Amino acid sequence: MSDFRDERIGLTHAARLLGVSVSELKAAIHQGTPLRGADPPQPVVRAGENRGNLLFLAGDVMDCAEALGNSGRNP
């Protein structure tokens, strides 16, 4: 059985795991800006005619979600 971190997930699922909108995630990726203070996950696949279908490794999205969760906390 494969590790979930190695699974590929789509843009909608990635945004849902991160707790952000699809448009907010896409904007951060395309503009190269932080996503609510954290580096956004980078797609491993850009497919389709306009290359708008993005796929991410679940582990990269999970790492970003952890960074987002920790960004508002004081050490």
From TrEMBL:
Superkingdom to which the source organism belongs: Bacteria
Protein name: DNA-binding protein
Organism: Halomonas salipaludis
